[in-house]
Amino acid sequence: MYFQYKNGQVVCRFNVIGVVSMKKRSNMRWVLPIAGVLLILLATRSVALMAVGQKARAKVIEVKQVIDNSSEPMDHNYSIGYRFSVDGKTYTGHTRRNKVYNASRLPKTGSYMSVRYLAPFPQINGDSRENPLQVVLLGGLGVILLFFGINRQRSSNPGRTNE
Predict the structure, then answer these.
(1) pLDDT of residue 13
(2) What's this model's pTM, rounded to 2 decimal places?
(3) Strand ranges (DSSP E) for 19-136?
């Protein structure tokens, strides 16, 4: 809202665009912290699988090249679907392998691969060949996003005091 002097009168005007942009900013301020928490959860899942996950032999049920809006056919990214059993129950999962330039290194449909799962929750499973460096980078990026997202919120509310 602002006041304008026009033809000898004071006119009150509302800036609707400013209100919309303020609402948009207030909704967007949660994006970084939420993305950070999600990345930290993914890293925690991977660490748990590597540290306490049980190994299982899984049958490969699908191998297909993935071409989406973030990749090209020349990227050679593949999705591998698998199935394994624990205590008579069957569970499925998928893993993704990126930049596989030698497709003969991929498991064939019907062959077996090693996977890890959490004993209390076999639905939480993953490829046993996960790279620890990727997990550390994923968790680190999550912490950075969370940190900057929270600091950004604090700096956008300078009049707020912690008492």
Answers:
(1) 56
(2) 0.67
(3) 54-66, 77-86, 89-97, 112-118, 121-127
Alpha carbons 136 and 118: distance in angstroms, whole number: 20
pLDDT tens per residue, range 16-40: 544 444 455 566 778 888 999 999 9
**What residue type is 105 in one-letter code?**
R
* Residue showing tokens 């330039």: 101
DSSP 57: E
Check: CB of residue 82 under 8 Å from CB of residue 61: yes
User: Which whole-number Å values give the CA distances from 88 to 76, 85, 115, 116, 161, in the listed order?
Assistant: 35, 6, 17, 17, 57
CA gap 100, 94 in Å, rounded: 16
